[in-house]
Amino acid sequence: MATDRPRRRAVLDALRAATGPLGVTDIAERLGVHPNTARFHLDALTTEGTVERTVEQPSGPGRPRTVYAPRPGMDRGGARGYRLLARILLSRLASDGPDARASAAQAGREWGRYLVERPAPSSGGVTGEEAAGRLTALLDDLDFAPEPSGDVIRLRHCPFLELAEEFGPLVCDVHLGLMQGALTELGAPLSADRLEPFAEPGACVARLRHA
């Protein structure tokens, strides 16, 4: 619940300020809350992966004590700014002038080769139909909503639509490079010849060509 967040942050801050792991009672005393309230937030932080829970063996008679400590590393909660990062990188690439589109396509080809599994040498390679099927499956995994039809694959969804509208050909060149790299890695007897952005209402069109 949103009302729990300030209290949960206070629990996490108390753990980070401590010189060692703390128990439920320690947290309750430091924050002036009921132990059940402290336990609730500690369990929630543990479930989120922000806090680690361990059992501390007593030095003498007595029951083991459950203690909590912040997980090493940066807090993994909060918002992400991946679209901003993409815009920063694309704007830098765009400043390369005439070389920008070639660089974008090359980056796509490298990732396309990385994202598919090369057939085993003993398999005898893939047919054009098999390669097209593997390419369609990859595009589906990447959320392009592909619709294959002969030597054409219609892409009904663009997972980078806002970036494509802002940076145009650069993003499309990455998409085309992905397809080209994947087909190269598969050793396919066909290639991705071109990508026509927004060629049809509600779809970009990728055209394949047999070698």
TrEMBL record:
It comes from the Bacteria. Residues 54-73 are annotated as: Disordered. Coiled coil: none annotated. Residues 10-53 form the HTH iclR-type domain. This is Helix-turn-helix domain-containing protein. It comes from Actinomadura meridiana.
